[in-house]
Amino acid sequence: MDSMHAFLPPLAAATSSLPQIVDDMGAFGLASLVILTLASIASWGVMFERWRFFRQLDKKVRDLRNIIRTRGLSSALVESETYLPSVEAAVLNEAHLFLAQRGVQGQLVLDDRAVAEAERSRLRALLEGRASAQFAVMERYLILLSTVASASPFLGLLATVWGIMHSFLSMATGGAASIDVVGPGIAEALVGTIAGLGAAIPALVGYNIFVRKVQKKESEIDLFLSRVVEYLVAVRGEEQAVMDTSSRPSPKTLAI
Questions:
Q1: Is-contact 186 9, C-beta < 8 A?
Q2: What is the H or E stretch that residue 158 is in?
Q3: Counting beta carbons within 10 angstroms of the beta carbon of residue 25, is it exposed (0 to 12), middle (13 to 18) or buried (19 or more)?
Q4: Contact at 8 Å (CB) between 76 and 228?
Q5: How far is CA 188 from the centre of its chain?
Q6: Mean pLDDT lowest for which of 23-27, 54-58, 164-168?
Q7: Would you call 123 exposed, middle or buried from its count of C-beta atoms within 10 A (0-12, 13-18, 19+)?
Q8: How many CB atoms lie within 10 A of CB 250?
Q9: Which is higher by pLDDT, 157 or 185?
Q10: What is the largest CA-CA distance in the chain?
Q11: Which residues are paired to 234 by β-bridges?
């Protein structure tokens, strides 16, 4: 019992301000509040950094789309490194390296359909691997938001339970159940609840927003990969046929 009292604040009259409540909190309550405050600051920092990152990505993707529409896919392949770390630019950069290794530029045209299909499979595997690496970059630090959103309410709940337990111990020590006795413990409990929710709610909202952006990009990249692979590796005599289908644009205006 004596060791537990070391973590509890001294008995005091009911306080009327948040700074006074914090000043009267015990070691455990203060530790919980500090941890939750640091977690909240870290999550806001991550959200700001990710917001800037995704804003930069959106601009680079728009510029890359404009290059493809106005100057063609071949120009976008050559200049793709400029528009990193967007996933589209990474895919085109990997495709450019693939073509360079085979000594061609713009498009690999083969006479044998089986060989073309094999080359398409190799190219798609390379592009999917590069895209996965870029998605990992997009998801960077989101694990921190997820951790704060899931763990903060429980830490706040722990601080709440501790404060209520302190209230009961105060009643036992003081031999009375007045508001002056139980008030400090209840106030400490509520501060813990507020701190936990205050850290968790913004982190949860930010996490959901950024995860949704990643998921949307994943769905877009799948179609983009298919179009790039079919255009860059073609069977002789079918170069135009592949890109002239109703669901695909012309080779010079490949859309993202």
A1: no
A2: helix 142-174
A3: buried
A4: no
A5: 33
A6: 23-27
A7: buried
A8: 12
A9: 157
A10: 95
A11: 109
